[in-house]
Structure formats: C-alpha cells, structure tokens
Design goal:
Layout lengths: L4 H18 L3 E4 L17 E5 L2 E8 L7 H11 L4 E7 L14 H16 L3 H19 L1 H4 L5 H10 L5 H18 L9 H26 L1
Parallel strand pairs: 3-4
Antiparallel strand pairs: 1-2, 2-3
Helix pairs in contact: 3-4, 3-8, 4-7, 4-8, 6-7, 7-8
C-alpha cells in the first residue's frame, strides 16, 4: 500500500523532533502564530526548535527541487535575522510511490477539450474532477522533479504557489475548488459547484501548460 504524503511527512517530522529533543531542544510542531517572531508572521514553518539562544525554523518538503522563488525569499528573510536559522529537510522517495510520466502537450489539449465538453453539457462535478486531473498532469510536465510522483492536490497547490506560478489570490481560489472537488469525489452531491470553480482550475491548467510549452520551445532553440 502506498503511504500518503501527509502520513510520511508526519512520520518524518516525528523522527526530526526526537533528534532535536535528544539534543535538549524544546520543539513545537506546527507552531501557533503567538510563538513566532514578528518577521515570521507571514510564514508558518512545520516546526520550531529552541534551546537557549539557538532558534531553528524547520520546514519539510516532499522532493528536492532546484529553483524555488519562495525558498529564495525565505532564505533572504532569515539572513536578516541571525538569531534564527531556517533548516529545510527533504523526505526521500519510497519505491512504492507511483511515478507517472509527464504527458504530451497534445494529451493535455485533448483532456482540456473533454473538460470543456463536460462543462458545456452541464456535468460540472465531472468537469471539476477532470479539470483537477489535467492541472496535476500539466504541472507534472512542467515540474517533473517535484511532481513526478503522486501528490495530494493540496501539495500541488502549495508547489505552484511556492514556485510563483499562481498568485496567492489564485491559490486561495484553487483551495476552494479543491475542497469542492474532494466533496464531489467522495460522494457529497450536495456541495454547490458552479462554472466559476471549474473555470478557475481550467485557467490554472492552461497557464501551467502554456508555461511548460514555452519552456520546452526555449530548450529546443
């Protein structure tokens, strides 16, 4: 059975916590805002570890990635506060995690056409679920190192936001569409779904696909 990313993250964090506590640190998992200094109020680490004057912010990521706009910004912020250190840990892949090949641009276009048809015919729940599948596939093509393996859609949103591909406002809209998609996928047929939520996901999928196509074209020239 494949272990969910959330469960793996929790296991990994518990291992880290045990190590820090053995060194005499007090560790706070998912710290509340009141425990964070003012400069960190816009960022919530996965944990903080404190011992005397040494203070560490801990962040756990699923995969090693190269460039991350959010990561660079965080490192710059922490560099201005030498009393705090940011430590980023990466959870190693497991061999049983399914790995999907990146789809072709033609496959993405075909899938988007299917979503449009479902929407036109009024099948909004099916369109929303399919739109999320297309967004995940397009994101995998753009960021294969980070998204080559199965991801929760919550993680997908955070990756797209951390890479600067979607804006914070767009990420918030995607989170709402994500909650509606989950309700529909798990049999809650009372959740109201409108074309607006479907269009949010379609727009994100088209954006990601366009960025990937442009990047591929630049690599070929």
């Amino acid at each position: 059975m494949t272990t969910s990313y959330a469960a793996r993250e929790q296991e990994f964090l518990q291992t880290l916590i045990s190590g820090y506590e053995a060194e005499g640190f007090s560790v706070f998992l998912h710290p509340v805002r009141d425990l964070l200094p003012p400069f960190m109020r816009g960022y919530r680490p996965d944990a903080i570890a404190i011992k005397d004057s040494k203070k560490i912010a801990i962040e756990v990521k699923g995969h090693v990635s190269g460039h991350s706009a959010r990561g660079e910004q965080l490192q710059k912020v922490f560099s201005e506060h030498p009393d705090w250190e940011l430590r980023v840990y990466y959870i190693p892949d497991r061999p049983d995690d399914p790995h999907f090949p990146p789809p072709s641009p033609a496959a993405i276009d075909t899938a988007l056409a299917e979503v449009d048809q479902l929407k036109r015919e009024g099948h909004l729940r099916a369109a929303l679920i399919m739109a999320w599948a297309v967004l995940e596939a397009a994101s995998r093509a753009l960021l294969p190192e980070r998204l080559g393996r199965a991801q929760t859609l919550g993680t997908l949103i955070e990756v797209l936001a951390s890479e600067g591909i979607v804006t914070p406002t767009e990420a918030d809209r995607l989170r709402r569409a994500y909650s509606l998609r989950n309700a529909a996928a798990h049999g809650d047929f009372t959740a109201p779904i409108t074309e607006a939520e479907v269009d949010e996901v379609i727009a994100a999928a088209r954006l990601v696909s366009a960025i990937e196509n442009e990047a591929s074209h630049l690599l070929k020239t």
